Amino acid sequence: MNIPPVDGLVLSDGKVLLRPYQRDDIERLKSRPAEWAAGNSFELVMVDPKNSRFVGACGLNQFRMEHKIANLGYWVRRTAMGRGYAPAATRLLARFGFEQLGLNRIEIVAAVGNIPSQRAAEKAGAIREGVLRARLSIHDKVHDAVIYSFIPADFGIAA
């Protein structure tokens, strides 16, 4: 699947601003995963709209378009944690996925021990569905994971 280009895309709710990476962002991160270039996923930068400070990133990946499903992931700089950026970004990007990409389901998968990520998913309004055994491999170690989901109805969008 080739997703539509995100050049020029800006999403904001006043709490967080999402936009494509810019040269300065890429310099900080030092790499661009091959999936982005192939058009199979994308990641947007999280920026505090009040001061343009880079606070993290979020994106959609692992598209399974035969079922109109994608995974949503996020990370926040340690200095910006606990300020609501991840939940705000998650809501914005999930709505975009439903309204603009026509997705029917968006999943968030967090390691059982990653409590901050689970909290962000819950604050965003994602529904916890259960634990997936041996779902993630992080640093060559297998972890169980909690799965959360959104569907269009969670945003008042007809499927």
Write structural notes for this entry.
- The chain has helices spanning 23-29, 34-38, 85-99, 115-124, and strands spanning 11-12, 17-19, 42-48, 53-64, 69-76, 105-111, 127-138, 141-150.
- The protein is an alpha+beta fold and 159 residues long.
- The protein has one domain: Aminopeptidase, CATH 3.40.630.
- Strands 1-2-3-4-5-6-8-7 form an 8-stranded mixed beta sheet, covered by helices on one side.
- Helix 3 crosses helix 4.
- The longest helix has 15 residues, at 85-99.
- The protein is globular.
Shape: globular
CATH homologous superfamily - what is it?
Gcn5-related N-acetyltransferase (GNAT)
Are there runs of 5+ residues with pLDDT below 50, and where? none
CATH domain fold name: Aminopeptidase
In total, the number of domains comes to 1
Query: In this structure, how is the largest beta sheet organized?
Result: 8 strands, mixed
CATH architecture: 3-Layer(aba) Sandwich
**Which structural class is indicated by helix and strand composition?**
alpha+beta
**What order do the strands of the largest sheet run in, or round the barrel if closed?**
1-2-3-4-5-6-8-7
Question: Average pLDDT, to the nearest integer?
Answer: 90
Question: Compute the gyration radius: what is it?
Answer: 15 Å
Portion in beta strands: 35-45%
Total count of strands: 8
> What is the overall number of helices?
4
The multimeric state of the shown protein is: single chain
- The succession of helices and strands, N to C, reads EEHHEEEHEHEE
**CATH class label:** Alpha Beta
